[in-house]
Automatic annotation (TrEMBL):
Database matches in InterPro entries: Bact_OuterMem_StrucFunc, MotB-like_N_dom, OmpA-like, OmpA-like_sf
Protein name as annotated: OmpA/MotB domain protein
A Gene Ontology cellular-component term: plasma membrane
Biased composition (Basic and acidic residues): 1-17
Signal peptide from the UniProt entry: none
Topological type in the membrane: Single-pass membrane protein
Region (Disordered): 1-21
Length: 253
């Protein structure tokens, strides 16, 4: 009995037991990362599934600001056809404006790929099309309607757009208010602008083999200045060649 009453001694402590690490166990951190990634994935799927026209318009806000349709201001003091004459209006994402936006992005992409044209050309939008604007001095000598030897390289992108896209073109020539010389072949800016527009049209047909039915040429003389003709710099800006691209279904005039 005495032997049975004796308690068994406690087991000895192991000296190799290491203390538990503080914080979450490694498997829980990995599990939390996986749950976060799955949550982000399903939120992304949900955003795509519920994307409507309003959300699309919000996402395209920056592009809309850059290529918004311009409308004339009712009351303002400005030079005719100058940027200050126009203000932007919100673009509703209907079928026509989606096509216009796509046209603008395509034309801009063509111009960006042309290093030479990118230096001098400017792109603007109109209600039914997009305009590439080039200074006249890049294509013609002063008072001349004969294209410069390198004019074809400046219009190569225009030819490429007409070849690769189903768009029609109006070649529009503008001049400043400088008077023609008395012995000039062109007694007024009307003749000069019309001759330059026709010369560029012939160049496009020759270089690109474009059907003439897809293009028109018109001269505006100095009737639509961008800026007041009061400095040489403004006159150089007003003297310009415009390539107006539009869908075949749109009447250009």
């Amino acid at each position: 009995m005495a032997a049975e009453d004796k308690k068994a001694p406690p087991p000895p402590k192991r000296q190799d037991d290491t203390p538990c690490e503080e914080g979450l166990p490694p498997w829980m951190a990995t599990f939390a990362d996986m749950m976060s990634l799955l949550l982000c994935f399903f939120v992304l799927l949900l955003s795509f599934a519920q994307q409507d026209a309003n959300k699309f318009k919000t996402l395209m806000g920056s592009i809309k600001e850059a290529f918004g349709v311009q409308i004339k201001r009712k009351e303002a003091s400005f030079a005719a056809f100058s940027p200050s004459e126009f203000e932007r209006k919100d673009v509703e994402l209907d079928k026509e404006n989606k096509e216009l936006l796509g046209m603008v992005l395509e034309v801009k992409n063509f111009v960006i790929q042309d290093p030479e044209l990118k230096k001098t050309a400017k792109i603007t939008t109109e209600d039914a099309g997009v305009v590439i604007r080039i200074p006249s001095y890049a294509l013609f000598a002063p008072g001349s309607a004969k294209p410069l030897p390198d004019a074809a390289s400046k219009t190569a992108t225009v030819v490429r757009i007409l070849r690769e896209r189903n768009l029609d073109l109006v070649v529009r020539c503008h001049t400043s208010d400088e008077k023609a010389e008395e012995e000039s072949l062109y007694p007024s800016n009307w003749e000069l602008s019309s001759a330059r527009a026709a010369a560029v049209l012939r160049l496009l047909i020759k270089e690109g083999d474009i059907p003439p039915s897809r293009m028109k040429a018109v001269g505006y003389a100095d009737s639509q200045p961008l800026l007041p003709n009061n400095t040489d710099e403004n006159r150089a800006i007003n003297s310009r060649m415009e390539f107006y691209f539009h869908a075949p279904s749109v009447k250009s005039w």
